[in-house]
Amino acid sequence: MPQRNAVIDLLRKAGVECYTRKEWGSKQLAAYIKRRSTHPMPPAPAKYHFLHITVTNDTDTVLTGKAGARQIETFGLSSPPQVSYQDLVTNEGRYFQGQDYGNKGTHTVNDKRVPPFSRDLNQEGYALALMQNVNDAVTDKQVRVVAMVFAARELTGWVRKGAPVYPHRKFAWKGCPGDKAMARLAEIERLKNDFVKKGTIMPTQPTETRGKALDEALKNLRLAKKNAKSAARIAKIQRAIKAILEIKPK
After folding, report:
1. Residue 107 near residue 52, CB atoms below 8 Å
2. pTM to 2 decimals?
3. Rounded mean pLDDT of the chain?
4. Where are the beta strands (DSSP E) in the chain?
5. How far apart (Å, rounded) are the C-alpha atoms in residues 183 and 175?
6. CB under 8 Å to 228, separation ≥6 — which residues?
């Protein structure tokens, strides 16, 4: 079985701004760990990706994003309540960790009895939710990060390669994930397949641009240390430097 944090680790290496449950302030940290033994997924790679929307307020900042994740946790159908989805992505392109990979989610059920799918789709795929409301913009950056998440699942072995992406509305009597997301669904799947075909979600940069980005990041790191910035701020800059160094130049 792949490492449970393999997806978020790969996203961070690719430069995605990510927040673990601990970092966004989950109130149920122990419950997610317990669920590993009470509600495990089958050992084989999952068959599907599912796209949802949380139908919550748009979050424009890190602080409101963290608060949004904590709110979504309270909506969970498990006991005690946990985030129903594996992944949350804002339209700023921020990623918030949800349910563990290797654990069953709780929000994807085949209410329409669509054949040949089973009733409990939570045991056959992993869910990602756009952390916003249906009228909020689905941005280019968000589309790219969602595709990166889906590709990271396949590249790390949590989902089989070439797995389809299905909207929640295919199986439920709901509009989820919203018309704006539906309009970008084919693009998300195409990007996901492109990443998997290349074997990486790491961005490419011209050598000159990469050098400038590295110089700026190193400058920020020196200033942060000189001005005694927080350990979290320094660690964030260090992750950015690591990501730049791992980008393959064109």
Report:
1. yes
2. 0.83
3. 92
4. 18-19, 48-53, 87-89, 95-97, 125-130, 165-167, 204-205, 248-249
5. 13
6. none
